[in-house]
Design a protein that fits this description.
Blueprint: H1 14-20, E1 29-34, E2 40-55, E3 61-66, E4 87-92, E5 96-105, E6 109-120, E7 135-147, E8 151-154, E9 158-162, E10 165-175, E11 187-189, H2 191-199, E12 222-229, E13 232-247, E14 250-255, E15 262-267, E16 271-278, E17 281-291, E18 295-306, E19 312-317, E20 322-326, E21 330-333, E22 337-342, E23 345-355, E24 367-369, H3 375-411
Parallel strand pairs: 8-11, 21-24
Antiparallel strand pairs: 1-2, 2-3, 2-10, 4-5, 5-6, 6-7, 8-10, 9-10, 12-13, 13-14, 13-23, 15-16, 16-17, 17-18, 18-19, 18-20, 21-23, 22-23
The structure holds 2-acetamido-2-deoxy-beta-D-glucopyranose (NAG) (12 copies).
């Protein structure tokens, strides 16, 4: 069991995994390519294994597994310059080579262009009785895009399968085009990590339960949602949503990605429903109601989420009172606000605007802003309070003054 000293890459659950899975052979590969000024320009740390199925001279098939990288060398790994693109090149075992190349796209993203894996099937100790001879290569075009100055992280298992070769990768951290020699702390997560690591930590059950909350999340992206009825759009909502839930004493925070979220709903005279759903959320319902025939508010939130271990997390509360505004207007709150659905589930909202009733021509009506946004209202209050205080002081001074002078005349 080899565990390399862990580099200062955040979000690595590897320390725990190494300790707990001590019996399982697993090599973390790590590469730090520096430029002529000794500044890091390409950084990667990852784990992988390969299984290769090949045909033998007796027309049967054999499978070999490559998971020992103790002899790995990194010759040919380059940062890239004007002519060449960055590349990770690794050689191991008896004639294996593995390369990943990167390209810069536009000014704000780079991409993992492709992954090539070559093996020497002529090597009859690794591939006994192989029918083929020579070097075989599988190339996978990946085309995965990452924002510049972000480190790509994928702790989850990813596999590539082609021509009898299965490539497995996990605990991947990689950044090309590293700026100023400093590996970024901004992580760009693969889709699987977004759901898995945030829903259930991948610590084995024997590990001590995590006591800390997960790393603070970035602000969620703002999504625009709407519901139509026969008269056109009847409900509008624009908001960034972050769900914070506690399950088995583990706090998880997930951001809703509007790009992968579907929405439906319904509008009735007294209630309106907006339902969101995506791969790991079966439904997230916002139910609005009318009160006193002149105001609306968020009355109910129901949620049901799939957890990675296969169980379902569900919470409902139909006795809420949030986002209160007059009918015929919209409710707006740009600052972060929290809808506390239960002790174990809360929704943090960002750049919120909703109008569940009386939507005209698909557009928001005038907004009633939340008190959090209303910095401006405080100023007149303070100024007003100051002014009235001054007036009171003047009046009191005047009255006392008059009393004094009056009393003065009396004594005369
Ligand atoms: C990479 O190598 C450089 C130069 O040796 C060092 O300063 C830097 O800390 C290393 N980075 C990582 C992430 O190991
Ligand atoms: C390769 O790694 C994956 C992920 O850890 C593991 O599930 C799989 O069993 C490994 N394959 C072999 C042949 O060791
Ligand atoms: C990995 O390969 C090296 C060199 O071939 C060998 O010494 C070592 O015992 C191997 N490790 C495992 C776990 O097979
Ligand atoms: C690869 O690098 C190792 C040390 O990192 C060196 O000993 C070896 O000669 C290099 N091989 C080639 C083909 O450049
Ligand atoms: C990456 O490598 C593949 C094959 O090795 C090649 O076809 C592709 O053009 C390379 N991409 C870049 C950007 O160098
Ligand atoms: C492939 O393996 C054969 C047999 O071990 C060896 O003769 C040959 O040089 C190897 N080819 C390369 C490119 O390493
Ligand atoms: C491997 O091939 C060499 C000749 O290329 C042969 O002498 C040797 O017996 C073979 N080994 C096995 C295990 O088949
Ligand atoms: C790199 O350094 C330049 C100049 O010192 C600075 O403008 C830039 O913001 C830095 N980039 C990062 C990602 O730190
Ligand atoms: C559609 O608009 C008409 C006229 O404003 C109204 O009478 C009717 O109830 C509306 N239908 C729905 C489903 O809201
Ligand atoms: C709702 O209706 C508007 C126009 O009335 C239309 O542009 C929009 O695509 C519709 N949305 C959905 C989800 O059907
Ligand atoms: C998530 O909820 C927990 C417990 O209610 C709280 O301590 C934590 O600050 C919340 N985190 C976020 C990002 O809202
Ligand atoms: C959603 O899509 C937009 C436009 O295609 C893109 O800019 C944004 O990065 C995507 N957001 C996420 C979280 O994938």
């Amino acid at each position: 069991m080899v565990c390399f000293r862990l580099s200062p890459v955040p979000g690595s659950g590897l320390v725990l995994l190494c300790l707990v899975l001590g019996a399982v052979s697993s090599y973390a590969l790590e590469l730090n390519v520096t430029d002529s000024e000794k500044a890091t320009c390409l950084y990667a740390k990852w784990q992988m294994n390969f299984t290769i199925r090949y045909e033998t001279t007796s027309k049967t098939y054999k499978t070999v597994t490559i998971s020992n990288f103790s002899t790995a060398t990194y010759n040919g790994s380059i940062c890239g310059d004007g002519q060449n693109n960055p590349k990770i090149a690794v050689q191991f075992g008896s004639g294996f080579s593995w390369t990943v190349n990167f390209t810069k796209e536009a000014s704000s993203t780079y991409s993992i262009d492709g992954i090539s894996f070559s093996y020497n099937i002529s090597d009859n100790t690794t591939f006994p009785d192989a029918k083929d001879k020579g070097i075989l290569t599988v190339h996978d075009a990946v085309g995965f895009r990452i924002p510049l100055n972000n480190i790509f992280r994928c702790n989850s298992l990813s596999t590539l399968e082609k021509n009898g070769v299965v490539q497995s990768y996990w605990d991947v951290h990689v950044q090309a085009f590293v700026q100023n020699g400093t590996v970024s702390t901004k992580e760009f997560l693969c889709e699987k990590d977004k759901t898995i690591t945030t829903v259930v930590p991948i610590t084995p059950t024997t590990a001590p339960p995590p006591t800390t909350t997960p790393t603070p999340k970035e602000k969620p992206e703002v999504g625009s949602y709407s519901v139509n009825n026969s008269n056109g759009t009847c409900l509008l909502a624009t908001m960034g949503l972050q769900l914070n839930f506690t399950h088995d004493k583990v706090v998880s925070v997930i951001n809703i990605n509007p790009n992968t979220t579907d929405f439906t709903g319904s509008c009735q005279p007294q209630t309106a429903l907006l339902r969101l759903n995506c791969s790991n959320i079966k439904y997230l319902d916002f139910v609005f109601a009318v009160k006193n025939e002149n105001r609306f508010y968020l009355k109910e939130v129901n949620v049901s989420m799939y957890l990675v271990n296969g169980s379902v997390f569900s919470i409902a509360n139909n006795n809420l009172s949030y986002w209160d505004a007059p009918l015929g207007s919209s409710y707006m709150c740009n600052k972060e606000q929290t809808v506390s659905v239960s002790g174990a589930f809360q929704i943090n909202t960002f750049d919120l605007r909703v109008q569940p009733f009386n939507v005209m021509e698909g557009k928001y009506s005038t907004a009633q802003e939340c008190s959090l946004d209303d910095d401006t209202i405080l100023i007149p209050i303070i100024v007003g309070a100051g002014l009235s205080g001054l007036i009171i002081v003047i009046v009191i001074a005047y009255v006392i003054g008059r009393r004094k002078s009056y009393a003065g005349y009396q004594t005369l």
